[in-house]
Amino acid sequence: MNKPDEPLDQKLAQHFKERKARTTLTSTQQKALLNTATHTKPKKFGFTLQLTSLACALGVFAFIVFDNNNVINTEPKTVLNSVLKTIDIHDYSIIKTHEINQAGSYASSITEQKHALDSQLANDLRRHQQRHIEYGTLVKVDNDWYIASCNDEVLVQIKQSLLNDLKGKHAVESNINTGDILAMAHNGKGQIIALKHAGAGVRQCGA
Amino acid sequence: MLLSIKSWLFETPSKDCMASYAKSGENRYLEQLIALYSNDLYHYLVTQSNTHLAYDVSQQTWLKVIEKRHLYQAQTTPKAWLFKLARNTLIDEYRRQQHFVELDENTHLAAQNDKSENNLNSGDLTSKDSHIGSSNISYEAFDAALKQLSFVQREAITLQQEGFSLTDIELITQSSLETIKTRLRYAKQNLKRLLGANNEQA
């Protein structure tokens, strides 16, 4: 049994078949369409690509600039100074380091070269041994004497054993009180061999 | 190895050229698409407008395919996706020209007849030149009746005759299934009415 619309459906199908056959693009139109389509580049995609490329280029540029600024060159020990003269980092006995540490706070430290410290120690020892008379203020007396040296920020502690030895040799002047400026006589080995008042010429450290 | 050489030498068009084009953007796939669908698309657009506007919209549609190829999903029927683009472009064009067009059931956007068709009137329903089947309804008469349908009814019937399933038409027109069925039913009723006694004869 046929459906009521079947004749119409057949006619429609026939009509559209014929209609499609009649309604086609001419070969010129089709060529033009093909030409337009295949020679057109997607504008938005191109624009997006350009933006992406620009962003990448800027990123690379920024990376190069900032990376050069932050680089820590650990390899070379010499750098060029302003007058194009090479200097050795070991010429400096003290290196002050300033940085932002991992906690994010400002920190500074001083790195002293070992060889510089060694030579400084040797010099100090030599000066100490060569100095025959050292001045200082007697700051405290208990069993030991504590004399604050005038030349260096050094506190000299003279143990009771040495005091007794020096007193036995009559090498300690009498009437020495706290606050007096004393003269400490040294031998060639830097050992204290006598203690006495500094005298009228030396009333205070630095005089 | 031999198989790959054979496939290279006798390369057959991909089943879904649109998917291949969306993926690669190569012009050869676009050329295949144009060869496959350009006439069908043009016919649909002519049915919904006129030859001049149809060609113009057809060009715009292919340019949109180039621009929006990344939006194509392989699950969609390529032809349906193409027709959807064309339909939207055509409606945009109508709205641009006529300021605003509401595409309800009664909106009649009758395609502008070409010069030869303008001479037709209801009295020409039985042309001597061309006949459909065994009936006396001429091609021109059938075409005139078709063009008197509303935009959406003509569209539904054209898409159905183009071979689209109801689901495809749903995708193209962005309407519900029931709406499409209703449009098809009314379109046929109106065609019958317009063709009058000639249709009854069949």
Structure description:
The complex is a heterodimer of chains A (207) and B (202). With 207 residues, chain A is α+β, with helices and mostly antiparallel strands. Chain A folds into 3 domains: 26-70; 72-115, no CATH class; 132-197, Beta Barrel (OB fold (Dihydrolipoamide Acetyltransferase, E2P)). Chain A contains 5 helices and 9 strands. Chain A has helices at 6-22, 27-38, 43-70, 114-130, 160-168, and strands at residues 78-80, 86-88, 94-100, 106-112, 133-141, 145-149, 155-158, 181-186, 192-197. In chain A, the strands form 3 sheets. In chain A, strands 7-6-5-8-9 form a 5-stranded antiparallel beta sheet. A two-stranded antiparallel ribbon of chain A has the order 1-2. In chain A, a hairpin with a 5-residue loop joins strand 3 and strand 4 (106-112). Chain A is rod-shaped. With 202 residues, chain B is mainly alpha-helical. In chain B, 66% of the residues lie in helices and 0% in strands. Chain B has helices at residues 2-9, 17-24, 27-48, 51-68, 78-98, 115-118, 139-147, 151-161, 166-173, 177-195, 197-201. The longest helix of chain B has 22 residues, at 27-48. The interface between A and B is medium-sized, with 29 and 40 residues.
